[in-house]
Specification:
2 domains; 9 helices; mainly alpha; Arc Repressor Mutant, subunit A; Rna Polymerase Sigma Factor, Chain: A; about 160 residues
Length: about 160
C-alpha cells in the first residue's frame, strides 16, 4: 500500500471505525485512542496490507485493540449483580427515548455478542467479514448474533424497562 492509499484509507474508514469503537467502549477519548492505535498498527504493516483488504484489516485490528484494552483494564462486569441492582432501582425510572433503552440493552450483552451485533446490524458487515474481523467461525458468529438478538428482545419487551 502506498502512502496515498494509506491516507485514503484514513479518510474512507476512520469515521466508521470510530462509530463502531465508540458504541462498544462508550467513551469518546478511548474510542479516539483506539482508532489512533489501529491506524498505527496499519502503518506498521503498510507494506503487507493491500489497499483492497485495508478496510477488513482496520476493523479487525480495531476490534482486537479494543478487546486488548478491555482485558488490560479488567472491565469484566458481573452481569448478575448489575441485574439485581437494576431490579431494585429499575421500577422508579421512566424512559421515553427508545434509543437510550436500546443502548442500555446493548450494554448488558457480553462484549463478543455486542461486537458481532454492532458489526452486523449497525455497520452492515456480512457474516464472512465478521468472521474475519473477530476470528470466530461463521457458525459462532451466527449463534452470537442470534443469542444477542434474543437477549435484546427479552430486555426491550419487559414492560418495566420501557415504562
Amino acid at each position: 500500500m502506498t502512502v496515498t492509499e494509506y491516507n485514503q484509507c484514513v479518510d474512507l474508514h476512520s469515521d466508521g471505525l470510530y462509530r463502531f469503537l465508540l458504541k462498544n467502549v462508550r467513551d469518546k477519548d478511548k474510542a479516539r485512542d483506539l482508532v489512533q492505535d489501529t491506524y498505527a498498527k496499519l502503518w506498521m504493516k503498510v507494506e503487507d496490507v493491500s489497499f483492497e483488504k485495508a478496510k477488513s484489516y482496520i476493523f479487525t485490528a480495531g476490534y482486537h485493540t479494543m478487546i486488548d484494552q478491555m482485558r488490560r483494564e479488567k472491565r469484566h462486569i458481573d452481569y448478575q449483580a448489575e441485574e439485581m441492582a437494576t431490579m431494585q432501582t429499575g421500577s422508579n425510572r421512566q424512559y421515553s427515548d427508545l434509543q437510550e433503552i436500546l443502548q442500555e440493552a446493548l450494554d448488558r450483552l457480553p462484549p463478543v455478542q455486542k461486537s458481532v451485533i454492532m458489526l452486523r446490524d449497525y455497520e452492515g458487515y456480512s457474516y464472512e467479514d465478521i468472521e474475519k474481523i473477530t476470528g470466530l467461525n461463521e457458525s459462532q458468529v451466527k449463534v452470537y448474533i442470534y443469542r444477542g438478538r434474543i437477549a435484546l428482545k427479552e430486555y426491550i419487551v419487559k414492560l418495566e424497562n420501557v415504562v
